[in-house]
Amino acid sequence: MGEINGSSLCLLVFFFTASYLCQANRYPDYTKHPCARRCVVGERPRTCEYDFIQEYYFVLTKACYDCPFNATDCYRPHCVSGNGVRRAIMTVNRMLPGPAIHVCHNDTIVVNAKNRMEGEEGTAIHWHGIFHHDSQIMDGVSMLTQCPIPAYTSFQYRFKAENTGTHFWHSHAGSQRANGVFGSLVVHQPDSTNPHAALYQHDLPEHTIVVHDWLKTLAMNKFEGHYLAGYSDEPHSMLINGYFESVHLTRDTGDSSIRALMNQCQCVFCLQLGESTSLEEVKALDAAGGISRKLSGAVAKDTVTVPDGGYTVIRFVADNPGFGFLHCHVKFHLSLGMGLIIQVGKPHEMPKPPNNWPKCGDWKYPREDKNNEREGKGNGGEGKATGKDGGEKKSDVETEKQKKSPLTNEAHGVAITKALTSIVFLVTLMIL
Q1: Does domain 30-248 have CATH number 1.10.760.10?
Q2: CA–CA–CA angle 96, 116, 363 (5° rounding)
Q3: Taking the domains of the chain in order of start, what are their residue ranges?
Q4: Sign of the CA dihedral with 210 first, then 215, 220, and 224 last
Q5: For the stretch 295-318, what's the b/e string if a residue is b when 16 or more beta carbons lie within 10 angstroms of its beta carbon?
Q6: What is the per-residue burial (b if ≥16 Cβ within 10 Å, else e) of 203-223?
């Protein structure tokens, strides 16, 4: 091995640093996003764009170095420690929870969702708590408001942050949310219009706490084991902001705020009855005046708790034309069919999708194509189509192959990353 002089060493460090930065920029955490700002009255709304790269990942990868034995290593970029049990997971930008979105009221949120999951699994991102007036097709419910995003393709969400508050986003396809595809979404407002502003001095993104349950294995293993083999369906542990640790909250000087996303479960009105409750019992109780109603100033919630053996009364104004999904937010219950579709308005009253909106559904071989195929085989030939002049007609596939399309920005990025990797490899060989 030859000696490495100072110039060669500097060159080597430069290329490795460039490669590292390319990798870091590929999976941004958006903690310094320009839209995460203090909201001001009269400020022009901004367009806030994010890249969400969804892929299979793993707990305690090489990015974690000596975690959990060295606690500091657990906070390295791209390190997901979970509860310390090594298992396959799904992440967005190699984070758990995924990137937090912090915007101001009426900002436009643009998310480029890129599906990089192996196994040809589709996905969709739901923006839990956002009203989506005039953008209902951006609600992100797979097979209802959109087709699943196929593997190795992308889909761009674009909608207005029209209602303030602490919300969250999560996958609405399969069991991906339970496997790690979720994060916080907070729509801020100026202190002068915030009714809770006097309760704290600072409203900072780092004050958001996400509490969620966690399994030792992929959610489908747990689901199938419970319903087909009688195993427990209870979670193994709880995580706070992706970490298996406790958080001590105090109320001393009142100089901070805490935004808690604890599965968004709070009761509006609920009554515990017994092991089961029939519709007739609820109607009889209501007729006897046993169910109170708050018809003005009621609490607005996007998720409420239905107690075991009881019921919950909900009420909403159907003022948003489109298709909505009312369902249990316990993942295994939803998988068993605890959900229904609510249609508000007629199809012509619903927002029109953009041009070239993806379509999905069943497909069956057309009858006429089957007949043409049989005729072609009967003639002993390959059944080639002919044009009006009797010549051979080119297929659509051949025509499409002849078309040339420019590289997208994403393709350019991949090409640049590959080129840098090749350069680093060649320089290393030259030095050695």
Answers
A1: no
A2: 125
A3: 30-248, 270-344
A4: negative
A5: eeeeeebeebbbeeeebeeeeeee
A6: bebeebebebebbbebbeebb
- 57 close to 82: Cβ distance less than 8 angstroms: no
pLDDT tens per residue, range 244-264: 864 444 444 343 444 544 433
- Distance CA(164)–CA(291), nearest Å, equals 30
End-to-end CA distance of the chain: 6
* Residue 153 DSSP label: -
Percent composition of the chain: helix, strand, coil (DSSP 3-state, to 5): 25, 20, 55
CB atoms within 10 A of CB 98: 29
Q: How far apart are CA 390 and CA 325, in angstroms?
A: 53
Hey, what long-range contacts does 228-233 have (CB within 8 A, 24 or more apart)? 233/332
More confident of the two residues 387 and 210: 210
Residues 6+ apart with CB under 8 A from 149: 113, 115, 122, 123, 124, 155
CA dist 101 and 23 (Å) reads: 21
pLDDT in tens, 98-109: 999 999 999 999
Q: Which residues have a Cβ under 8 Å from the Cβ of 115 and sit 6 or more positions away?
A: 54, 121, 122, 123, 149, 150, 151, 152, 153, 154, 155
**Do 159 and 138 contact (CB within 8 A), yes or no?**
yes
Cβ atoms 75, 27 nearer than 8 A: no
How far is it, in rounded angstroms, from Cα 24 to Cα 77? 8
What is the pTM assigned to this prediction? 0.73
The H-assigned helical ranges of 2-142 are 6-26
